[in-house]
Amino acid sequence: MEIVVLIDNIASKPYIAQHGLSVIIKTEDKKILFDTGQDPCTLKRNLKLIGEDDNFDCIVISHGHYDHADGLKYFIEKGESRPKIPIYIHPEAFVDRYIEGRYIGIDKELKECLKRENLILVNDKPRYERDMIVSGKVERLFPHENDPFYMVLKDGTHKIDYVNDDMFIIVEDVVFTGCAHSGIINVIEYAKKINKKVRGVVGGFHLMHASKKYIKMIYDYFSIHNFEFIMPLHCTGLYATKILSKLNNFIYGHVGKKLIV
């Protein structure tokens, strides 16, 4: 399996960095796009620079935040003549989401366009495909730190947003997580429950604004697990990445990084 980081907060030259995430996963039979970053221009530019085409067999959206989903406009803008690529997404990804008054959900026009796409809705239970497992809603049995997100309901009322649409995928026993809003420990433990084996973890660990106490708990968790590799990206944050880099199985990830596992 080949893993290519397409969009991340950090990039090596000549690639473009962006607050967001997108990872290409290539197996012997399938080419998966996991998340799409926050705009079509960056997605298109990095695809060209990396030398990848856009003939994906499927797209998976980890959750309904703009920095993971709005790059889908790239495919919408190609017009009706393009193939309708299956898009795996949780139904709750379409809610209107905010933090401190700022809209952070999927672009509202894009949400309307997506209704006409080949959506595969994954709700609370895992969806098992031949080459991939889409987690559905993640069990949250271990402590994690929540963000002050909220969503606006159709009647105009506010509700705390726990990002219950947060999903990950498993491909060849490697876990790919978008932001791990469920808590990275919960993500991995649930992955072990639905797949039994985890040999690597790639993606956002959601530690950018985490307390030092929580980051230490994450470090201790990883230090006692014999994963082949971990590659923190995006919302992991520089401080947490520095701490995790002390682990022997740590791999530094950035736009343009290619990993064969």
UniProtKB/TrEMBL annotation:
Offer an example of a GO molecular function term for this protein.
7,8-dihydropterin-6-yl-methyl-4-(beta-D-ribofuranosyl)aminobenzene 5'-phosphate synthase
EC code(s) of this entry: 2.5.1.105
Q: Which residues cross the membrane?
A: none
Short name of one Pfam family: Lactamase_B
From the UniProt record, list the coiled-coil ranges: none
Alphabetical UniProt keywords: Transferase
Q: Where in this chain does the record put each Metallo-beta-lactamase domain?
A: 19-234
- Which InterPro entries does its entry note? DHPS-like_MBL-fold (IPR041712), Metallo-B-lactamas (IPR001279), Metallo-beta-lactamase_dom (IPR052926), RibonucZ/Hydroxyglut_hydro (IPR036866)
Please name the PANTHER family in this protein's record. Answer: 7,8-DIHYDROPTERIN-6-METHYL-4-(BETA-D-RIBOFURANOSYL)-AMINOBENZENE-5'-PHOSPHATE SYNTHASE (PTHR13754:SF18), METALLO-BETA-LACTAMASE SUPERFAMILY PROTEIN (PTHR13754)
> What protein name is recorded for this chain?
7,8-dihydropterin-6-yl-methyl-4-(Beta-D-ribofuranosyl)aminobenzene 5'-phosphate synthase
